[in-house]
Fold this protein.
Amino acid sequence: MSNAVSVRDALGTARATAAFKFHLDLHLDKEETHLYRIIRERVSVPDQGKAVGVIAGTIPQDRNAEFIAWMFPLLGHQDRENMTRVWRMVMPAEVFAGAIQLVHQAVGPGWAELNRRIPELAA
C-alpha cells in the first residue's frame, strides 16, 4: 500500500486498501468471536475498566475526538453500551461529559438506542 500511495497510483492504492480491509475485518471478527467472550467470562468489570483506562491513556489527547468519531460508528449497540458504561466508570465526570457529546455526534441516529440502553445519559 505504501508503494501505491507514494507513486500516487489511485487504483493500486484502492486495491491495497481493499485487501488490507479484508484481512483486518477477518482479524477483528475473530477477536470479537473469541477474545471478547473470554474477557467477558474471565475478567471482572472493574478490571475491564482498568484495562480500558490504560488503553485510552495511550491515545494522544488531541486525537480523542478523531478516535471517538472513528470507533463508535463501527461498534454495534451492545459494544457501544459496554464502552459507554466503562467510560462512565473510569472517567472523571467532566471528562465523560465531553466524551459523551462526541459519542452523540459520532453515532447520529444511534444515539436514541444508546439513551434507551443507558437512561442516565438523558439526564
Observations:
- The helical segments are 2-6, 10-42, 45-56, 64-71, 77-90, 93-107, 111-117.
- The chain has two domains: 1-42, 44-123.
- Residues 1-42 form one domain.
- The two ends are 46 Å apart (CA to CA).
